[in-house]
Amino acid sequence: MRLAFRIAARELRGGLRGFRVFLLCLILGVAAIAAVGLVREAIRSGLADQGAVLLGGDAQYEFTYRRATEAERDWITDHAAAVSEVIDFRSMAGTPAGDYALTQVKAVDAAYPLVGALQLDPPMPVSALDEGAPGVFLDPALADRLEVKPGDPVLIGGQEFVMKARIVREPDTSGGGFTMGPRSIVSLRAIEATPMLAPGSLYESEYRVLLPPGETLPGLQAAARQQFEGAGMRWSDSRRAAPGAERFTNRLASFLVLVGLAGLAVGGVGISSTTSAWIERKAGTIATLRALGATAGTIRSAFLIQVAVLGLGGIAAGIALASLGVLLAAGPITRLMPIPIEVGLAWRPLAEAAVYGALTAAVFALWPLSRMETLRAATLYRASDRRGRRLPRWPALALIGGLAAALVGFAALLSGMPGLTVAVLGGVAGALLVLALAALGLRWLAGRVRPLARGRPALHAALAAISGPRSEVVAVVLSLGLGLSVLAAIGQIESNLRNAISGDLPKQAPAFFIIDIQPDQLQPLLAQVEAVPGVSRIDTAPMLRGVVTQINGRPAREVGGDHWVLRGDRGVTFADAPRERLTEGEWWPRDYSGPPLVSMGAKEAAELGLKLGDQITVNILGRDITATISSFREVNFSTAGIGFVLTLNPAALAGAPYTEIATVYAPPEAEATILRETARAFPNVTAIRVSDAIARLTEALTGIARAVAVAASVTLLTGLVVLIGTAASGEAARAREAALLRTLGATRGMVLWSFALRSLLMGAAAGAIAVALGALSAWAALRFVMEMGYSFAPAPALAVVCGGVAVTVLAGAAFALRPLALRPARVLRAPE
Where does the ABC3 transporter permease C-terminal domain start and stop, copy by copy (predicted)? Predict the structure, then answer.
């Protein structure tokens, strides 16, 4: 090893010539993964540090569509240092002039907020809501939408309030999840005894508490669950104040890391080709060392040491680049976050990125290095014979396979999504294999087509270069193909989502969901809405909300895990006859009054592993109802119409307060009239415009697509580096080719056109293969993840192909001008 270190040290004195692509690929891949990890760590730390602020207290008791009873409130107060009650619901906010918009209302008491501070413009205490006429604080977006300012009247749920201030920041805004409208804050005292809190109305009551001295969160949680067992209480505390935000952040960050690994895989192609080219240049040195008696192991060790030193340098530079970039962008990142975070350096994400970089560099560099020992010195001295390379020996193959498995296992362990991780990395490996096979196929096809191009010297020369033994086609297709594939998949998914939103949904989706309709208001409301010109259909159903607490006598989460049906409260209805097609079982008779029965969505039941005859317990307004599954239904949520996973027989819910829900199908020109007339005549009901909900969802999806596109751009940038490196390494071969062609009578223009044709054909092939892979990936994502149909979108596909052609032609042209400028005699008088 001492001799190997001496040889490596002397070789490294020669500088980084030929290793710029190696280093750039490693730096970009490591920097992308490290940057995502640093931002993820900052969000995690913010969620942990701000847990009590985000929740509004140390712990929270939540009840669905009811307030705590006097006895429950007394128990909560006895086990707390301070208590604040908050009620959250949707309503319509409007002006006396008749302009209305959906809002998410938060009714607070005098103790709000227990932790943190509500920032207002102009600044004022929360108690200002009860000073003089009932007041309201409005989200700036809602204030601008209604065109109101402090002092102006605002109608919420038919009650008149005076706008006091605009909301700058809510301390507890991130724990509440997705909201359908901008926030309004009113006093709890102002809405008590109003229709907004009538029996059956849809609202959440939350009791935030501060721990008393000597109490712990685990102890209080255990006591609360024992006290409120069967009462429909949901517990949360500052240890996980915003589980939805935490879950989303972790999953998105993990997915971005996987996209970053795709970039590293592209960089691995560059690392492998750079190492191969380096070994090619050092063939004479290797042959001399072998002739002088150096063993294959010594030479291999010397080269491994050099690669390891350069790899460590690239990893360190990538970590430094990510750290500097994140620190410089700390201000904009902090402003984009809904919670206060402190962006800084953390060792864990940097270490993860370093491990990813080291494993990737090792896997891709070992392949060409391990083949050195299969070459004899005599073969190395004969440059024309170096192409007859064989596969590495089995120990090297086993080592490479072990490192690749370690990379996959490490990624699966850290992502928290092992299935998705293995699928994505398997997809990346499969894509690289398909691209390599396609490149070899193009090389074979060019050789077969070349005789047909006689008489067209430029095309013939281009096909000869593509099919030749030193062809760049594999490196070009691999370097560009994977990055373009990711962008093609994003383009196809985004186009399909946009078409679904703008094209499919309006043909079948309702214009409005109307909720909080009291039973005695249903017929008058239907009569009013049906009188609006253009209304084509109205569907109605009774609605309650319930929490699935048990399945077959066991806690529901133990049976179904984190399934969405078990996460929070769900809509529940009752009916004498089925709305949807039954897939299995039988419906109850119209006058059935026996033990409770339930009909369940077939897809959701299958995902939970349920069968006919199983029992589920649903807590509705504090009462546990255990029902037997009598049938399964085909529930289609994609139409945005009325759909319930759980439908009970009417007698099971007899006497329970409920409201009606309605869906109104009408053209866009009728929406303003429906909204205005409904809000005026029935101020307690809430009309949710479906197009607004879709717009908010589209905005969220667009943001996610943007983040993935940024991560994918790193993959494409790495591919460009590899492409440029490949073009640069082939400059000497191009110079010799140009000299030979010009000696045989070709003009500079014809030679340049031949180079351009070569690049155009390889770029078009890379783009076409990327479109095929991207379309396949988009189909899989839409079909199996989003459960949507897929149709090929030609516009983004054409953009990908054109982009691949343009980039390849430009890179080829940039490194073709210098060879053309050299005199043929100077090039052909080579040392050999």
Answer: 259-372, 710-819
Is residue 728 over pLDDT 70?
no
Q: Do 653 and 695 have their domain in common?
A: no
8 A C-beta contact, residue 473 and residue 808: no
Tell me the residue range of the domain where 625 lies. Answer: 537-665
In the chain, how many domains are there? 4
Measured in whole angstroms, the distance separating CA 143 from the mean position of its chain's CA atoms is 31
Q: Name the phi and psi angles at 688, rounded to 5.
A: -105, 115
* Domain identity same for 261 and 143: no
- Report the largest interatomic distance among the alpha carbons of the chain, rounded to a whole angstrom: 102
Mean pLDDT highest for which of 50-59, 523-532, 680-689?
523-532
Q: What is the SS3 assignment for 234?
A: strand
Q: Are strands 183-187 and 100-108 parallel, antiparallel or unpaired?
A: parallel
**Rg, the chain, Cα only:** 34
Identify whether residues 656 and 571 lie together within a single domain.
Answer: yes
Q: Do 216 and 247 have their domain in common?
A: no
pLDDT tens for each residue of 783-813: 766 566 778 888 888 887 787 788 778 877 7
Picking from 532, 8, 478, the residue whose alpha carbon sits closest to that of residue 289 is 8
Q: Domain check: are 564 and 585 in the same one?
A: yes
Please say which residue of 240, 270, 285 terminates a domain.
240
Q: Residue 80 above 60 pLDDT?
A: yes
Same domain, 73 and 222: yes
The CA distance from 631 to 585, in Å, is 4
Matching residue, tokens 């301390």: 171
Same domain for 76 and 41?
no
Helices vs. strands in the chain: H and E counts, helices first: 28, 21
**Same structural domain, 703 and 808:** yes
Integer CA distances (angstroms), 291 to 373, 381, 406, in order: 13, 10, 37
3-state DSSP percent of the chain in helix, strand and coil, to 5: 60, 15, 25
The CATH number assigned to the domain holding 556 equals 2.40.70
CA dihedral of 450, 455, 457, 460, whole degrees rounded to 10: 0
Instruction: Mark which of 240, 270, 300 sits at the end of a domain.
Output: 240
Q: What is the DSSP letter of 830?
A: -
Q: Over the stretch 410-467, which tens digit does the pLDDT of each residue have?
A: 877 776 667 767 777 777 788 888 888 888 888 888 888 888 877 788 888 888 888 8
